[in-house]
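Thread title: Can someone regenerate the structure for this chain?

I was given the following input by a collaborator and told the matching C-alpha cells would be attached. They weren't. Posting the sequence so someone can regenerate them.
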Amino acid sequence: MASSFEKFQKRRVISSYFSVVLCIFIVLTLLGALGLFVINTEKISGYVKENIPMTVYFKREATDSVTKAFGTRLQNSAFIKDYKFVSKEDAAKNNPDLMADAETLLDENPLLDSYDIHLKGDFVQKDSIKDIEVELRSDPAVGDISYDNVLVDKANENINEITFWILIISGVLAIVAMLLINSALRLSIYSHRFTIKTMQMVGATKSFIRKPYIWKGIKLGLIGSLLSILALIYLVYWLDGAFPELTIWKDWIPTAIVLAGVLGFGIIIATISTFFATQRFLNLRTDDLY
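Best answer:
Regenerated them for you:
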C-alpha cells in the first residue's frame, strides 16, 4: 500500500514539474518570437520597402549610349539597391497580349526602353522618393517615372503601426509570462507545503528550507528556457531559409541577445517565483495549510 502511495506521489511530482517546464517553454517561446520580430523590424521594413518597384521610361528618341550612361549613373547612386534595363523588345515579349492588339493598330512597337529600379529601404519615404524622382527626371532622356506612391505611404504607415502594437503585445505578454510561470511554480510548491512546515517545526531555518526548492526552481527554469531557445533557433533557421534577404542567421548578434534574454528571464522569474511561493508557506500557520 505504501509503495503504491509513493508511486502516486512520485507521478504527481513529476507531473507538476512537467507542467512548470511546459508553461515556461510556451510563454518564453512566444515572448522570444516577439523579441526576434521586434529586433528585426528594421530589416523586415526594409525588405518590404525594397520590393516596391520604380520604373523609369525613356523617350523614344533615346539611344543605346544614353540608356547605358543612365545605367552607369544608377550604379553610382547611393539610393539604388538594384536595377534592370528592359528594352522595348523585351517589354514586347513580356506583354504578348498587349502587342497582339497593338500590331493590328500600329506599325511599330509602342513600348519604351526602361529601367526597373528597387530603392534601398531607407529611401522609400514620401519625401525621399519625391527627391529621387525629381533627380531622375532631370535627365533629358527620361520621359516618365512610374511607382505606386499610395503603396509607399501605406507601407510606412502599416510598418510603424505594426511595430507599435508588437511592442505593446510584447509588454503584455511579458507580464502574462511572469504571472503564468509564478502560478505554475506556486502550484508545484503547494504540493510540498506539509514537508516545508514539518521541516520548520523541527527547527530548520527558513533559508535552509528554501534552498533546495529554489535550486529546483532554477533547474526547471533552465530546462524550460533551453527548450525555448532550441525552438527559437529552429524558427530563426527556418526564417533564414524562407527569407534569406533578411540575413537573420548571418547577423547573429541581435538573435544571440534575444536568446540570452530568454535564458536569463526564465531563470530569474523561476527563482523569484519559487522564493516567494516557498516564503508564503513558511509564513502560514499549520491550520492554514489545510
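The domain at 53-147 is CATH 3.30.70.3040 (Alpha-Beta Plaits).
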